Amino acid sequence: MNPLSTLIKPTIPKPNLKPAGVTSKMADEVKLYEDGRSPYVSRVKLALHLKGVKYESVVEDLSNKSADLLKYNPVYKKVPVLVHNGNPISESLVIIEYIDNVWEGFPILPCDPYEKADARFWAKFIADTVNLIR
Fold first, then answer.
1. Contact 58, 44 (CB under 8 A)
2. What pTM was computed for the model?
3. Residues 23-49: pLDDT tens digits?
4. What are the distances in angstroms from CA 108 to CA 7, 39, 55, 95, 111?
5. Taking Cα atoms as reference points, which of 103, 110, 118, 125 lies closest to residue 50?
6. Which of the residue ranges 34-43, 83-92, 108-117, 121-130 would you say has the lowest mean pLDDT?
7. Burial track 33-68 (b if 16+ CB lie within 10 A, e otherwise)
């Protein structure tokens, strides 16, 4: 054992969440900030529906962004943004992985690490290709 490993212990802040695999029910507040037409929002909605997660939809006017959207996504200032018990998550692929980790039910990503990496690759490829087409 490395003697320095006992002295240096990185501290990583943990979000205020239930352990992975715990089904979220009544106590959870889930909001999805969306614009009503984005394909990125559509895939987040699909993930929420696959997991059976009830959520409040907050439709944003992207030509007049709300203070909440700017607060929850100060970097990109765009939708989708999922707010779970006050914790905002931005970017659709990140949101989908979060949904898959927090709520039980239909698995969105494979459990096998290689298959999961492959699925992430193709999801990113498709997202980047859609951006090129638009």
1. no
2. 0.75
3. 444 469 999 999 988 989 999 999 999
4. 39, 17, 18, 12, 9
5. 103
6. 121-130
7. bbeeebebbebbbebbebbebebeebebeeeeeeee
Q: Read off the pLDDT of each residue in 125-129 and give the average, rounded to a whole number.
A: 86
d(Cα 82, Cα 80) in Å, to the nearest integer?
A: 7
Q: Is the pLDDT of residue 21 over 50?
A: no
Q: What is the DSSP letter of 75?
A: T
Cβ atoms within 10 Å of 76's Cβ, excluding its own? 9
Identify whether the C-beta of residue 62 lies closer than 8 Å to the C-beta of residue 35: yes
Cβ–Cβ under 8 Å, residues 73 and 17: no
